[in-house]
Design brief:
The protein is α+β, with helices and mostly antiparallel strands. It has helices at about 5-30, 35-40, 45-80, 85-90, 95-135, 220-225, 245-255, 265-270, 280-310, 315-345, 350-370; strands at about 150, 155-160, 165-175, 180-190, 195-205, 225-230, 240. Helix 3 (about 45-80) crosses helix 10.
C-alpha cells in the first residue's frame, strides 16, 4: 500500500466506521421500536443478544450510506484545505485518490455478497426464533399452525403445536404430480435440523385422473384411484422427510413478525424457479434474489455520486452530513418503491431491484463529466 493510500484511508476510515455504527444502530432501533411493547421485561443479556443478531442485516443495508458519508467527509476536507490540489501538483492524479475509495467500495460489495449467501440466512432465522422465545416463551412454530406452507415441492400443514411449541400435531404433507396426489399424514412431527421426523404416519397416493375413466366395477375404480396405502405398523415408528428448511427458516419466513427473509442466494434462486409453488411465491423469490444481488453493487453506484458531490459541495462536516442524508433518502426511495413495484408486477423484477443502481451510475457519470468540463 502506497503512502497516498494510507493517508486517504486515515481520513476515510474514521467517518466510515462512525457512519456504520450510527446508521446500523439506528436501523436496529427502528426495527425494534414497533416490537418494544412485547419485549419489555426481557432480561438485558438476552435482549442485547437478540439485538446483536439483527446487526448483520443492518450492516448490509447501511454499508453504502456509511461509505457515502466517508467519501463526503474525507474528500471534502482534502479539497477544502487544498490537499487534493497539492497531491495533483505532486503528480498524484485525482483518479488515483478516488481509486482508494473504489477499492473500499469493492471490498464492501464483496462482503455484502458473502453475507447475503452465508451469514444472513443464519442470523435472520435466529432473530425470528429468539423473538418468539423471548415474547411467548415457546417456539414461533405456533404462528404457522393451520397455514399451508410451501416447502420445496410440497405443502406442509399442521393443526397445532405442543412440547413448548417444538412439536407439530395433526400434520399433513401434500405433493402433486399432475393428477397424482401423495398425501402423508402423521400424528406428530418435529424438526431435527432440516429433517422433519414424523410419528404415527400414513401415506396415501391417489390418482385422481382415474375418476375421469368410465369403470363399471367399483372395486376396480377404487384400485385405480388408490395407488399406494402405507400405514406404520408401530404407532411410534418414525419417518424422516428431508427438506431444505429448518424450523427457524419457516418461522422467519411465515410467522408474520415482519422479519427479514432467511433464504440464501442459492435458496432464493431455487424457489424462483420452482414451478410447484404459486406465481406470487416465485415472483417474491425473484424480487428478493435480485435485491440481494443488487445490494453489493449499491456501494459502488453510490460511490460514483459521492465523489463529485464531495469535490463540489462538501466543504464542512455539517454539509457532508446534509448531502449524505439527501443521497440516502433518494436511494432509499428507489430501494423501497423499486421492490414494491416489482412485487406487484408494475415493473420488471430486474428493473425494480437494479433501477436505483442504474440511476445513480448515470447520475454519477453526468456529475463527473460536468466537473471535468
Amino acid at each position: 500500500m502506497k503512502l497516498v493510500d494510507r493517508y486517504v484511508l486515515r481520513e476515510a476510515l474514521p467517518p466510515f466506521l462512525f457512519g456504520l455504527v450510527l446508521y446500523s444502530s439506528l436501523a436496529v432501533v427502528s426495527a425494534t421500536i414497533p416490537r418494544l411493547q412485547w419485549i419489555v421485561g426481557t432480561p438485558i443479556a438476552e435482549l442485547f443478544g437478540w439485538l446483536a443478531l439483527q446487526l448483520p442485516q443492518a450492516l448490509v443495508q447501511t454499508l453504502p450510506i456509511a461509505l457515502v458519508l466517508a467519501v463526503l467527509i474525507a474528500l471534502g476536507r482534502l479539497a477544502s484545505e487544498h490537499e487534493l490540489l497539492a497531491m495533483q501538483v505532486g503528480g498524484v492524479p485525482l483518479t488515483r485518490v478516488a481509486l482508494t475509495f473504489v477499492t473500499l467500495g469493492a471490498i464492501s460489495a464483496a462482503a455484502v455478497l458473502a453475507m447475503n449467501q452465508w451469514v444472513l440466512p443464519e442470523t435472520n432465522a435466529r432473530t425470528a426464533e429468539v423473538y418468539w422465545r423471548l415474547t411467548t416463551g415457546r417456539s414461533g412454530l405456533f404462528r404457522l399452525a393451520r397455514q399451508n406452507l410451501p416447502i420445496d415441492d410440497f405443502l406442509l400443514h399442521f393443526e397445532s403445536t405442543g412440547a413448548g411449541g417444538d412439536s407439530l400435531r395433526g400434520v399433513r404433507i401434500e405433493r402433486w404430480e399432475g393428477d397424482v396426489l401423495t398425501l402423508l399424514r402423521a400424528d406428530t412431527a418435529r424438526f431435527d435440523g432440516s429433517d422433519l421426523v414424523l410419528t404415527g404416519y400414513r401415506i396415501d397416493r391417489l390418482d385422481l385422473g382415474a375418476l375421469d375413466q368410465p369403470v363399471s366395477d367399483p372395486a376396480l375404480a377404487l384400485a385405480n384411484l388408490v395407488r399406494l396405502r402405507n400405514v406404520a405398523t408401530d404407532p411410534q415408528q418414525t419417518l424422516v422427510v428431508t427438506t431444505s428448511y429448518t424450523a427457524d427458516d419457516l418461522i422467519a419466513r411465515f410467522s408474520g413478525g415482519g422479519f427479514e427473509d432467511s433464504r440464501s442466494l442459492t435458496e432464493l434462486r431455487r424457489d424462483a424457479e420452482n414451478a410447484l409453488v404459486s406465481a406470487d411465491e416465485r415472483r417474491q423469490a425473484q424480487v428478493l434474489l435480485q435485491r440481494k444481488l443488487a445490494e453489493p453493487f449499491t456501494n459502488l453506484a453510490l460511490l460514483l455520486v459521492a465523489v463529485p458531490l464531495a469535490l463540489s459541495y462538501s466543504r464542512s462536516r455539517g454539509v457532508a452530513f446534509g448531502v449524505s442524508l439527501v443521497v440516502t433518502l433518494v436511494w432509499y426511495l428507489f430501494y423501497t418503491f423499486g421492490q414494491l413495484f416489482a412485487q406487484t408486477g408494475a415493473l420488471p423484477v430486474w428493473l425494480g431491484a437494479w433501477g436505483g443502481n442504474v440511476v445513480f451510475v448515470v447520475l454519477g457519470a453526468v456529475l463527473l463529466a460536468r466537473r471535468r468540463a
